[in-house]
Every structure is written in C-alpha cells, then in structure tokens.
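Supplementary Methods, section 5.1.

A reviewer requested that the exact input to the structure prediction be made available. We therefore reproduce it here, unchanged from the version used in the analyses.
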Amino acid sequence: MIKKFLLFAALGIALPLKAAVFSDSLKQGLECQRQGLLNQAVDKLEQAKLVAQSADEQSQISGALGRTYYQFHQYELAKPLLEQAYQHSDGLQKAEYANLLGNLHSSQHETKQAQTYYAQAAQLAKGDAVLTMKVALNLARDLDAATHLETLQKLSNQLDEIPDVSQRAELSLSLGEQAKTLGKDGLSLAFNSFEKARLLSANEKSPRIQTQAIDGLASLYEDDKRVGEALRLTREAIALMQAHEGRDILFNLEWRQGRLLRQDGQIEAATSAYQRAVEHLEAIRQDIPVDYQNGRSSFRETLEPVYLGLADLLLEQAKKISGDNQQQLLKKARDTVELIKQTELEDFLGSRCTVESARQQIEQLDNKTAIVYPIILPQRLEILVSTQKGLSQFTVPVDGATLKTQVQKMARNLRNRLPATMATKLYGWLVAPTEELLKAQGIETLVFVPDGALRLIPMAALYDGKQFLIEKYAVATSPGLTLFDPRPLQHKDLKTLLLGMSNPGAVVEKLPVKVIGGFLDVGEGTTASVDAAPAEKRGLESSGTRNIAEKSRTLRELVRMNNGNLEQAMRTPAFIAGMKDQLKLPGVKQEVTTLNEQSAGNTLLLDEGFTLVHFNEEVVNAPFSIVHIASHGIFGSKAESSFLMAYDDLLHIDDLEVLLRAEKFKKNPLELLTLSACQTAEGDDRAPLGFTGVALKANARSAMGTLWPISDEAAFELMTHFYKNINTMSKVKALQQAQLSLINRPEMRNPFYWSPFILVGNWL
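The structure derived from this sequence is encoded token-by-token as follows.
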C-alpha cells in the first residue's frame, strides 16, 4: 500500500512538472518563432511535443510546429502537423489552420487545394474581421492584374473597420507588399499602405512592423531612383531595428544601404554596409528558408547577391592599389565568395556540421601548383590565381549571363559527343589571361574552384585551338579552399575495396518512382508522357552500347498496359525484369576484376556479393585506403535525392557517412572514393556537389567520378591506367596520365570519352 501511495504521489508531482515544461517550452518556441529564430523555435517546440499530455496540448503543439516548419519552407514536415491541428480544432482556430493550409498549398502551386482551404477558412471566420481580411488578401494573390488591383483597393477601404490597431498595421503592410508586385499600377496603393502601416505601428510601439513599413517605403523610392530619400528612410529603419536585434530585417536594410551608397559614389561606406549585411546573414543563415525548384536553390536569387556585392566592391578597390593592402583585399573578396560555396554545400547536405568538421586550409601550395578561383559577377568575370608568390587578379570583360550560356552549351555538346566549339572561347576567358603568370612560375598543376554553371564542365576539356588543357597541366577540382585535408598521398600499403554491380538485383524494386519516371520519360502516375521520345540521355543510363531506346519503349508499353500508372507497373514481374535488363552494366565485371588482379591487397565484392550488409562487414573488418564503387548512381540537387546502387538496395550519402566514419577512419581517413558509372543530373549546376558531398560524408580526402555516362571501354582503360599510376605519383598526375592515354588513341580523342572524369578534393 505504501508503494502504491508513493507511485501516485510521484505521478502527482510529474504531471504538473510536465505541464510546466510544456507551457514554458511552447511559450519560448512561439517567441523564437515571432523573432524569426526558426531553428531555436523548432528545438523548443519539439521539447514541448515530447511532454504534451492532453489532446488539446497535442493539437496546440502540432499547430505551432506546423506553422514554424511552414515559415521554414519545409512544407512536407509542415503539412501533416497543420492537418492534424486543423482536424482537432474548431471555430476561429480551425479557420486559422485552414488559412495556413491554403497558404501552404498555394506555395506549392496547388491552386485547387489552396482555394478549397481558403473557402473553408472564409466560412469559419465569419464575424472575425481580421481573419476574414487575411483570407481575402490570400485569395487576391491568384487574381489577374486588373482584378487584383481593384480587389486590393476595396480591401484597403475596409481596413479602417478593423478595431485592433496593431492588426490593422500588419494587414496594411501585407496589402502594400501585394500592391507593390503590380508595378506602376499599384504604386500609389503600395505607398499609402506602407505609410499607413508605419503610422499605426509607431503609435502601437510595434518596432518590427514599423521597420518593415519604412523598409517598404524605402524600396519604392529605390525603385524610382530617388537615392537620397531611399537612403534616409533606410537609415531610419536601421536605427529603429538595431535596438531590437532583428538581424533578419537588418541584413536586407544594410544591403539596400550598400547599394544606395554605391550608386551615390560612397564606395568605402558602401563596402562597410555590405560587410554588415553579410555579418547579419552569417549570424542567422540557418534560420533563412531555402527553396528548391527545377534543380535550383533560391539561395542564389535571394542571398548570393549580398555576398557577391561585397566581393565586387573589394575587387574593384584591389585594382587601384598594390602590395600587402591589395593582397588583403583580394583574400577578403575570396573569403566572402567562400561563404557562398560553404552555404550552398550545407544546403545540399542539409548539415552545417559535416562541412564545418571538414574545414582545413589548403592555401599552402608547392611551387608547381596554382589555384584558379573564378568569381562570376553580373557584369564581368574575375579570376584570382593563387601561387606560392601570392594572389594575382585578372579581369575578363564577359558578363555572367553570357558566360553561363556558353558553359551550358559546352556541357550539352560534351555529353552528346558533339564538337565543343565553345571550349576555345571558354579557354580564352578562363585560362588565357593567366597563362603568362603560369608559364613564368613553371606551374604544372591547376586546381580549379568552380562556381555555379562552371561546375557542369570538366576544365580539362578547355581547348586553346591546338591542345586540351589536360595536355598542358594536371587538372583537379576543389569545392572550396578550406574543405579537404591537404596532406600528400602515402603510396605504400594502398589497399582497395572494389564494389561492382554488373547485374542489378532487388535494388531495382527500391528505385524511387520519380527516378524511374525520368528514366522512361513517363509522368508519375499519369499517361501524359508515355508516348514521349525515349530518354536516352537522362536519368539512370547504362554506359554500355546496348539499344537503350528500344528497351525503354518496351518498358513504357508496360506502363501503358497498366493504365499509365507507373507505380502499379513497377510492381509487375515483367517490368522488374525489364528494368534489371535495362540497368545491366556489362563492362563493370571486367573493370573491377582487372583492378582486383593488379594488387594482392585488394578485396572484391561483385553483384550478389555487393550487398549493403557485405559492404558494412568489409569496411568494419579491414582497413582500406581506397573504395572503388562501379555501379549506377545519381546526384541531384540535394543529398537526399542522390544515391548509389548496391545489388540489393540503395546506398544513400548518409549511409556512406555511417559506414565510413568508423573510429579507424578518423585516424586514417579514406584516401580516395572512386565512383565509376555514376553521373550527375544534366543541366543542374548543384548536382556536381554530389561528389563533394559523398567525400565529406564518407570522410574521404578525395573523390573521383564522372559527370556523364561513358563507354565501358573508356572507363576500363582509364581506370586501369589510373590505378597503376597512383602507386608512384599524386592523384592528379595519375588522372592526367590516364586521360592522356585515352587522348592518344584516335578513336577516343573526343572529350566525351576522357574528360568527364573529375578529381574533387585533395589532389596530392
């Protein structure tokens, strides 16, 4: 009886404690959410979720978490939470969640679903003027321009009926932002709405709304080229927000101040403003949502211009001076661009920790190596070349858009074995300006740190009209200056784990629907694309010479027989057998068995032997310096959409991190991770980050892979030469000699055969 009493007493204490923890965590999470500190908000709200007891508390926390994930643009996480909160609420609260779900579907361009939720929100919100106005403003976004403006004007007149002044200020701000999107037609309404929001929020002492309203007014003046008035308002907003630590607003204000000061000719003051903007961004970078659409990250459109603006100013100033001061400015400009590369890699991997843990300086060079660092600016190309003697700056008068177009053309032509005539033009922009310096210092190795579209092409294929770049220099690639261990390769006791899949097994049944759909040019779950042309150059592709087009047509016919339902077709034995046949890699067996015979210390796992379990066992039980994977693989715009194929299952980048970050690899990291037969998504300039991501996740010092599928013969020839060479020379020299061996064969001189092989990371 005493034990029961003590138990109930403990429960009696625990329940109030949990209630207190829930209340505190929820309160703190909501406050962080209000301030835009979204990572902290998620942490606090997840803590509250763990101790939520009643159905009401669970509904409450689902709504708060869903709202936070929505603000973070993590829609897949937000949707079920908001739906749960919507189902378990009623009245005005249910209307709020319906409105949020409408916003979520609208953000994903799902107009019908959005309209349905907005209609429900409007019905439930009757009698509440604020929520009714919110829903009306959301519905207005999808109207045509003329009706949109007319509707906004009517809603503006109705705003005065809202008694809550702070709510009226917030709604005026929202209305002004919509009116601004209508250009000249909405200019007057936008100005009046921002001014109204400014006055109302000042009276209510709402500094964030007041600052955002002044910011809105400043943006209108900036668009109208009224620099003085825009600058005055921007400074007023900065002064107001500085006392409240609103970095999410301050970075945009300082950025505008930098732009305006530059237009006004105040270069030093502009540089300082840009520097403050970057500092604010770095402080809150993890709380800024990034969207991905059509293989592109919103980071490049929304945040990259801030970093590039600072780098641009620093580079312009560096041209006017010399000596140590010039070197400092050039390094500062390069370090600023490095932040872009680091941020984009973090976005790709979904992890800041992985990138931070791998940062090591590679600035110390031997006297035969130069780092070539292109910086693509809107109006020009800047090339920084780093050698033992310091940094040199070269300015090329080609705008960013033109450069990007030429790079994309070259990438397409290389993939399709067409003459890459623009390779000579790109050589003239990227290499020719630096050649006098390179020759004078006796440079033999070039390490490119490419950005954006430049990641799509192998620099080795640049052509001076007589020779390819690889015929003059050994060429490596690095994602940044501070990401890989700079120690040289230790040539003795190099043991290699060889993994090959020439005949796929159960892994075929685990391929994502979207990957299969892209491979066959079949829309997911639809018949819309069944009659499309065969996708010979996209998705997973065999690197052999079999008739891919004919086999793709057979598989598409199976989809048609299943009423165009791809998922249904994928479960049929005929489709599975057809995919296995389609994805055979007949050259892999010869490649890995030959490599296995080259050294007594190698271990081979082929086909049925190459399962995830066997891979794990070998990695745990034996020390390896090199892991060579000859199998299909795809690298997309994010790590989570990138994978390799084992015989029985998909091998994701995160799986490699678990497998290859064992204790023994911390002391002796993998020297090299080779990905033979893998490819990057065509035209997606983030996809080549996959090689970097794999290397970082696997704690490997270098990664080697191909940008596009190649012939079995070319892969076999290059790999056998490379591994023979690596026992006596650096990785980059070994790759150069292997590529030259193919170039010297007339039937393989076309860059299609030898240039897609790129070495990423440590080149020593």
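The domain at 19-302 is CATH 1.25.40.10 (Serine Threonine Protein Phosphatase 5, Tetratricopeptide repeat). These observations are discussed further in the main text.
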